[in-house]
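Researcher: I'd like a structural prediction for the single chain below. Treat it as a standalone chain; there are no partners to consider.
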Amino acid sequence: MGLTNKEASRRVGVHDRTGREWRNGRTDPKRRRAPALAEQEPVPSATRYLRDDERIHIADRLREKASVRTIAAELGRSPSTISREIRRNGMPLRGDHTRWVYRPHAAQRRADRRRPRPRPKPRKIGQNNELRDFIQAHLAMRWSPEQICHALRRRFPGRPEMHVVHETIYQALYVQGRGELRRELARALRTGRARRKPHRQAASRQPRFSHPMVMISDRPAEADDRAVPGHWEGDLIIGKDGASAIGTLVERATRYVMLVHLPGGRGADDVSTALQTTVQALPRHLTKSLTWDQGSEMAAHHAFTVATDIPVYFCDPASPWQRGSNENTNGLLRQYFPKGTDLSAHGPEQLVAVAAELNSRPRKTLDWETPAERLHKLLTA
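Model: Treating it as a single chain, here is the predicted structure.
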């Protein structure tokens, strides 16, 4: 068990000097003798290498002056295996280099250190400069590793040397000592972190509006299955100290993104006015409904509906998954608008540019089409 002689002796109820004599194989007729081991049937080993418990058995039997062949028979091993183990992993007795002693735990450590380790396997990204340059260029464009992998298969369909899985890219970024990709590119990933963190549930908020809310359970079924375009999800991303915000709108069927400029703040009237201005640029058949959480910024939802003829549906408290597309998009937008920064510094032209970049990224949920491509198909159908 790896205990000291004193602790082992205490556990079996003998003096530590007696334990030391048992360990070294010396006994005194006047003292308690070490209990004799029962006869054991040979047990074939399941592994090629000696185990820790087998080395303990060898040490115990050597102290009892058992022969190598006897020990080998008890363990179901070859006598040459036992002889070689004692010769290779034994050590000279302290103060007397002419005598050797076999310590099982030291022998196990020595054998583990001597066991050959596999050589590092050459990595695909590190061997292929063209592949590495392609991945680095698209990471710099804030593409996710999974998007890059599918783009590689589309761009080079007949070249398997240019195909990797996204975990290969993550390991090339995060595992120390590989260096296939520049380490600073890890900051271009969605979270900018090298470790994944569990999702945290948002705090429950239930503000009371003067006009009754229409809950998401009353939303048309066509919005739930995403079969018909024109149903939107909305939210705000908040800046430093809650003093600034940007509105986000995501179309459920195409994941098309529109950003709402809020120069006057995030009050209910400001949000309602900005949303009205934004949706006016959309064709009528693409403005069927809007789903929001129960944030106070939508207190003027009734005025928005009257002005635009777009019904607003509210999610249940603490249920961000009911606006999953919008929540995912907000996470993507944090690469451009980090938390704790002043969002009022971003003008409407910059918001349009960011939305255009997001809408030109291939999306897994769209079978690797971009939101812009999918929306264009709907508009020209």
